[in-house]
Amino acid sequence: MVTLAFRPSRVPFRSRRQAGSLQVDLLVAMAILVIALIPLTTAIRQEQQMCRGHYYRAVAMGIVDGETEILRAGEWQAFELGEHEYSVTAQAGEQLPAGAFTLTRTETTIRLDWIPEGIGNGGRVFREFLIPDQPWSSHHHCGQRPFKARAGNKAESSLLNA
């Protein structure tokens, strides 16, 4: 029969001191790593939220611009004076967070807004245009009112408006 006897090994004082020093070094390195990672993680999260907000705003702008063109083409006449909930048919609207499209008609203007619920969702997007004084004619471009030149002197003005 074989009997093994274990003797506690004696670690010299110098080695124990070195081992303790190594543990302190490791602890300091981990603390530096954690202190560096927390702000980095926070910065990445904030940048992610900012990018998401810009994306939502870009989607909302595209939808509002497209719907404004439809309204400028004459669809605005279907709305009475006042504020109305406006429904959009764009599939891109599914990408937006909770919010509402509203159309506001006054005697002289039409305004289409996208108003998101909460903050960090891109912010409010709106387009506004003047209601035309006369029916659209073929020489108006993109549903805009006729251009009136504004010049600094009479000579330039007479040339531009001729």
Describe the secondary structure blueprint for this structure.
Elements: H1 13-72, E1 82-85, E2 99-105, E3 109-116, E4 125-130, H2 154-160
The counted number of beta strands is 4
Distance between the termini: 121 Å
Task: Determine the oligomeric state from the structure.
Answer: single chain
The helix fraction, in percent, is 40-55%
- If strands are numbered along the chain, what order do they take across the biggest sheet? 1-2-3-4
The fraction of residues assigned to DSSP E strands is 15-25%
Decide which structural class fits the backbone.
alpha+beta
How many separate helices? 2
Task: Give the tally of structural domains.
Answer: 1
Spatial shape: rod-shaped
Radius of gyration from the CA trace?
A: 34 Å
What is the ordering of alpha helices and beta strands?
HEEEEH
Low-confidence stretches: 136-162
Mean pLDDT: 76
Largest sheet: 4 strands, antiparallel
What does this structure look like?
- By secondary structure, the protein is an alpha+beta fold.
- The chain has one domain.
- It is 41% helix and 15% strand.
- The chain has two helices and four strands; from the N terminus they run αββββα.
- Strands 1-2-3-4 form a four-stranded antiparallel β-sheet, covered by helices on one side.
- A hairpin with an 8-residue loop joins strand 3 and strand 4.
- The N and C termini lie far apart (121 Å).
- The relative contact order is 0.10.
- The C terminus is likely disordered.
